[in-house]
Amino acid sequence: xxxxxxxxxxxxxxxxxxxxxxxxxxxxxxxxxxxxxxxxxxxxxxxxxxxxxxxxxxxxxxxxxxxxxxxxxxxxxxxxxxxxxxxxxxxxxxxxxxxxxxxxxxxxxxxxxxxxxxxxxxxxxxxxxxxxxxxxxxxxxxxxxxxxxxxxxxxxxxxxxxxxxxxxxxxxxxxxxxxxxxxxxxxxxxxxxxxxxxxxxxxxxxxxxxxxxxxxxxxxxxxxxxxxxxxxxxxxxxxxxxxxxxxxxxxxxxxxxxxxxxxxxxxxxxxxxxxxxxxxxxxxxxxxxxxxxxxxxxxxxxxxxxxxxxxxxxxxxxxxxxxxxxxxxxxxxxxxxxxxxxxxxxxxxxxxxxxxxxxxxxxxxxxxxxxxxxxxxxxxxxxxxxxxxxxxxxxxxxxxxxxxxxxxxxxxxxxxxxxxxxxxxxxxxxxxx
Amino acid sequence: xxxxxxxxxxxxxxxxxxxxxxxxxxxxxxxxxxxxxxxxxxxxxxxxxxxxxxxxxxxxxxxxxxxxxxxxxxxxxxxxxxxxxxxxxxxxxxxxxxxxxxxxxxxxxxxxxxxxxxxxxxxxxxxxxxxxxxxxxxxxxxxxxxxxxxxxxxxxxxxxxxxxxxxxxxxxxxxxxxxxxxxxxxxxxxxxxxxxxxxxxxxxxxxxxxxxxxxxxxxxxxxxxxxxxxxxxxxxxxxxxxxxxxxxxxxxxxxxxxxxxxxxxxxxxxxxxxxxxxxxxxxxxxxxxxxxxxxxxxxxxxxxxxxxxxxxxxxxxxxxxxxxxxxxxxxxxxxxxxxxxxxxxxxxxxxxxxxxxxxxxxxxxxxxxxxxxxxxxxxxxxxxxxxxxxxxxxxxxxxxxxxxxxxxxxxxxxxxxxxxxxxxxxxxxxxxx
Lengths: 433, 433
Fold this sequence. Notes:
Chains A, B: Keywords: ATP-binding, Nucleotide-binding. Chains A, B: GO terms for molecular function: ATP binding; metal ion binding. Two copies of one chain form a homodimer. Chain A is α+β, with helices and mostly antiparallel strands. Chain A has three domains: 3-132, no CATH class; 156-243, no CATH class; 249-427, 2-Layer Sandwich (D-amino Acid Aminotransferase, Chain A, domain 1). Chain A is built from 14 helices and 17 strands. An eight-stranded antiparallel sheet of chain A has the order 14-13-10-11-12-15-17-16, sandwiched between helices. In chain A, strands 5-9-6-7-8 form a five-stranded mixed sheet, with helices on both faces. In chain A, α9 crosses α10 (218-231).
């Protein structure tokens, strides 16, 4: 029986039009999950050279795959629910029952499409998702309620549904000489975050913007009056207010929440400069205690979400804060969708083995500036640094070439950080301004 | 050690200014929970004659109670967080540690007040509540996600974050000759509900307004364009869209979610004409199967909420729909706060015994039109129908006299519905227009 793989982005209800322009390119990460016989629903036709590259590396039979894409032309409304797309998908399935539905962003539209194909029950957690569950499983606000309800350590702060509550929290933290990070409820990769500080020299990672305030009171009111609409997407959402910990490390543990088992997918470190730039899987040099805290907390969140009816990927994000005493692990958000790391450890397992983390590091970078995908491939071949199954090391291109700003994301598979760094130096870089 | 009882209403974040004008009167239901030595925080001074009435009936020592009320005058902001109120409450506690905090509407303001008194851990579920949990435990949208995620039966429908999704759902139901009920995410007692119908003769209970649409398509768009802002409280919240079942019975089962135990508080039936008018505890004539379905589903929701970190009252509401075959129990919402029934079964237990439901019925009515509280009391005495501990029957006044519209809510304690009806006929009614 075929699987149905759906390359959708988070709905407008969560992130508005953020990322919409690049959706077709972005959704191609779905290809790393293909298996023989899959039916893929994608917002745009995939780049054939990238599709060939992936199927070759993963020993998948390209001819066994069916790709369904919407009819050309901008149409209003949720593309997944376009009746013509449903019709095309039904044709592609040709009466075969769907074994499993796997979507980048599981939500009510995915369930609705599956239902119209008679495959509702093939969507993991379909009951929960069908009734708006994506707004729970992706919310940084709900995350804080559940994490605090489970006794997990969180950065000092709260969830604000109105500017007065935000003012009280921000003022309390700033007046105590602690910088503050504000987070939009649903945005990803640091793009919905802003840091507020009273001092000029703060080094910030993990936020798109840093705002210098003249004082901890009136300037906070001025800031909130100016930014409340942006922070809440026009008052639709809540705002997370937290103490910001400069110099902390961002780590994650990602799981698959199944009916019976909660399985670790992978763990790693995210490095933001100032927003998502690269990541290491597994996170280098975690102490046993740090890793244990990350795993215990991550599994606890999975158990809560499972009790709520969620099934699928759940990534628990945390920061490691070096304090006066023992470094502490504070949880910062969760993501109930296919994250920017899911395809990385997935391909890591397919290429370097399910237990890659024992002797290999995956170093994922968002941008290699190259003139084209073909040129990138040629360079890897000529340098002899393309991924080699024999040595279980080398460079993997993670997606097709993105014309603006002319980059390809990639993953270095190496023995450790130093070996990955050496590999990275052998990538040809376009001269940058 | 004293308990701290807090007579607050749902925050503006949930219900806006709905009910705010009558808050002082409304909050007096808190008095039914008092025990000797309690410190009560109320938005306005309670009616002394009602307070005397309650303490006498419940054998509570009035002199052992301390009532804290905010300083006079309208002040902006959340009254519970007024520093002067905190100061007064601290004085009332006089250094005694707080044994338990019990609030009508447990939320982040309750936790913040408790924290400033050094009593945060005395708030059940304080971690969850402190991080915005009230927006989860009171949400009809989150309810649907969790109930569907647990496999509970729900009326056909969904949770809509945008008008397009609402349009699709409404149109599907109406085109199938099924009327539709729309519900605001947080409002109570049917006040945030509207029913949409294509036929004139629909008899509606449980909604403040019924809207007759000319067709199932264009008229739905016109309706949503007109009402979306109202339905979503200015786009802040989601909207629940469900099939409306005319003639269904509204029932509930209410529990206390504790660390260890989930305890049944009471169950009953709510009768709306068209919004909340009266209720019976327990619900008369439930079949064993109906009661079982209500209890199993209600307990399941409690378990999910407990896993999420919630502690306190949880009421599960359902409708019983008589169909062609067996009547079905569909769950419709939950409420993680002290509901309009909590004080009723609480006083029922205090007056008629913990097992009152074995041989007594509580019939609660929202309005007895009388000139004053004193006049109501006099009438009960002269008719000999005031509650009598000897017979475990009679009339209990549930709150003080409300000047607009000149009513007192009351509870009949009787052997059964017929006996309650006979008691009700002996209440003197003001002539109504």
